[in-house]
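Sat 14:20. Reprocessing the chain from the morning session after the first attempt stalled halfway. Input below, unchanged.
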Amino acid sequence: MALHANMFFLCYARRGSHVLKTADPAEIMESYEGYIEAMNRSGFDAALDFQTAWYIARDIRSHILEVKFCRSCRVNYLFEPSMSSLSQCQLCRISSVSECGLCTAN
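Finished this time. Tokens:
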């Protein structure tokens, strides 16, 4: 689920840095549709529903979820220190790159 949260976030973040501060329901919906399309093209089932995507967008703006930059794969990712599934870059987590330790929080 954490990987899917990050995939939605990447679609959402492409809208611009303003999404970290303000909510536009149309942008959240379009980002969710982009996430669904990306999952379908990749051959994966979408694990997030729209309500979960909405909560992710809300939690980003509320600073419940933080955005960190992965120095290894060079993408932004969602970070939440109390959730082990969101304590490092999800793209690196599913690959051997995660062993380098660059994505873990300090």
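The first helix runs from residue 2 to 13.
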